[in-house]
Design goal:
Layout (H helix, E strand, L loop, with lengths): L1 H12 L8 H7 L13 H14 L3 H10 L4 H16 L3 E5 L5 E5 L6 H8 L12 H4 L24 E8 L6 E3 L5 E4 L3 E4 L5 H13 L11 E9 L2 E8 L5 E6 L4 H7 L12 E5 L2 E6 L1 H7 L13 E4 L5 E6 L5 E4 L6 H7 L11 E7 L4 E7 L13 E4 L9 E6 L5 E4 L6 H7 L7 E11 L5 E6 L1 H5 L12 E7 H8 L1
Parallel strand pairs: 8-12, 13-17, 18-22
Antiparallel strand pairs: 1-2, 3-4, 3-7, 5-6, 8-9, 10-11, 10-12, 13-14, 15-16, 15-17, 18-19, 20-21, 20-22
Helix pairs in contact: 1-3, 3-5
Length: 492
């Protein structure tokens, strides 16, 4: 870190041409508590980003340096927003050539060229790894809120700054940094060990020490004392395994596993989202299943990090592609005890058009591919294999119980084919025939089970007088009763 700070200082020192600008204040000032990002021009933002890139440090490291100098987190958010907005708009920067001439080159944004190419590729829904959008969405930020009150169970460590506000009969407000040995030195009181204590426990110890050393009126209530954390320390956490950007990250001590995973870009295309390990003191103390958060919003294992923690992303053992008539297509990671019903649950269920009686699976064997059809009754028993491609088809575009009547009836249209439904009963459902109906000849169109077509003539007068038997209707049947006016106009 010292090398980084020295390098930054050298670059900043060489920029004397900007000594009177707000940019120079952001660069060189040790106290940025009153700095406002609105004072920076767009060209200042571009130059500031260029300085960071030339120094060889990441934006996260630059953010931590700014926090240490007192720049409010709200201003940091504004600065990052300005940087992102200008990064996405193409600007030209002149670079000197070997002969002193200048050439125009496009300024690169915060993403690498490879990441930009990936963003531009439009993947099919079934080719997107479920959960990857959690880390690929640049508008979604997993950052701890540094503006909230410090939790009472926050554990104090070296480099935290403790604020002691004394008011009432006596008044003072020192801001004390915890030493590497874990002590704070309260003026006129002495050293107090606070390392490893929660804020609540440290406040109790500090008050007891102060009451014994010049602040006796704390006991009577004439003097009030408030203890809080004014600045949060930075910790170093390492991300290893199948991460997009594995490495060591400097993050706030309020950070959780999700915070550092987001900084590392999340798991890559081979990485697991369901068995992410938090290793502390050479022991796995937690295993994070990101599906709990993605599907239910549960963050039970998203615990706070401590200095020198290691987050390990192993390779996913079983990845399955699901496409077709499900509410969410994609590539899903399966655990050993999960079945087809679990997979459908990850996809948020079937669509209304899904054929749910059977699912088609394309599987890889040791030598070749094979096709498997899994019936609905077998979903609970079937465990998907790595590389399975599962397709949910659509229901057939036909009706199982539709019958249609048209022509000279009061309510033509589609009707339900109930058991033992006859022609007379269907006409009654359609509110009967009109006065001008041609009853001498109606037509019944039917498609038989062998898909052959059949046309049947019928006489309504004969059916009504029972000279002919009523016609029992079957599925895929249409009835047409013509109007006498149609025949008259045809005859004329």
């Amino acid at each position: 870190m010292k090398r980084i700070v020295i390098l930054i200082a050298c670059i900043f020192f060489s920029l004397s041409a900007f000594s009177q600008s707000s940019l120079q204040e952001l660069i060189s000032s040790k106290d940025l508590s009153n700095f406002k990002v609105e004072m920076l021009k767009d060209e200042d933002i571009v130059k500031y980003k260029t300085y960071i890139q030339n120094a060889g440090i990441t934006e996260a490291q630059a953010e931590q340096l700014a926090l240490q100098r007192g720049l409010p987190s709200s201003e940091i958010l504004k600065l990052k927003a300005r940087i992102n907005s200008l990064s996405h708009s193409t600007s030209l920067v002149t670079k000197p050539t070997a002969k002193g001439r200048t050439t125009s080159t496009k300024e690169t944004d915060s993403l690498t060229t490879t990441e930009q190419a990936k963003d531009k590729v439009t993947l099919k829904p079934e080719d997107i790894i479920f959960g990857s959008e959690l880390f690929n969405n640049h508008d979604l930020k997993f950052e701890p809120d540094l503006r909230i009150a410090t939790p009472k169970n926050y554990v104090i460590g070296p480099d935290d700054e403790i604020a002691i506000d004394v008011y009432g009969f006596q008044e003072t407000n020192p801001r004390l940094t915890v030493s590497p040995e874990g002590f704070i030195n309260i003026p006129n009181v002495g050293f107090v060990s606070v390392n490893g204590l929660t804020v609540e426990a440290a406040a109790k110890r500090i008050k007891e020490k102060m009451m014994k050393n010049g602040y006796s009126r704390i006991a009577t209530g004439q003097t009030k004392v408030e203890i809080s954390i004014s600045k949060i320390r930075t910790i170093r956490v390492t991300v290893i395994g199948q991460a997009v950007k594995p490495g060591t990250y400097s993050v706030s001590s309020l950070s959780t596993i999700f915070n550092v995973l987001y900084a590392a870009g999340g798991p890559n295309e081979k990485g697991s989202l369901r068995t992410i390990e938090l290793i502390r003191n050479n022991k796995v103390i937690a295993t994070l299943d990101a599906y709990d958060f993605l599907l239910k919003g549960i963050q039970k294992e998203n615990i706070k990090l401590t200095d020198q923690d290691v987050v390990r992303i192993p390779a996913a053992n079983v990845l399955v592609k699901l496409k077709g008539e499900v509410k969410r297509q994609g590539i899903f990671e399966m655990l050993p005890n999960e079945n087809m019903n679990d997979l459908i649950g990850f996809a948020q269920g079937f669509t209304g058009k899904a054929y749910t009686s059977s699912i088609n699976i394309e599987r890889y064997t040791e030598k070749e591919k094979e096709i498997i059809d899994i019936r609905k009754t077998e979903f609970e028993k079937y465990t998907p294999n790595n590389g399975d491609k599962i397709t949910v088809g659509k229901v057939l575009d036909r009706y199982s119980n539709r019958i249609v009547i048209d022509g000279a009836v009061y309510r033509p249209g589609q009707y339900e084919l109930t058991p033992s439904l006859t022609l007379s009963q269907l006409i009654a459902k359609a509110d009967g025939i009109k006065e001008d109906a041609y009853k001498e000849r109606g037509l019944l169109y039917r498609i038989n089970e062998d898909l052959s077509k059949q046309v049947i003539d019928f006489n309504l007068n004969n059916i009504e007088t029972k000279k002919e038997a009523d016609i029992l209707l079957k599925k895929m049947t249409s009835i047409v009763i013509a109007s006498a006016k149609d025949f008259m106009s045809y005859t004329l």
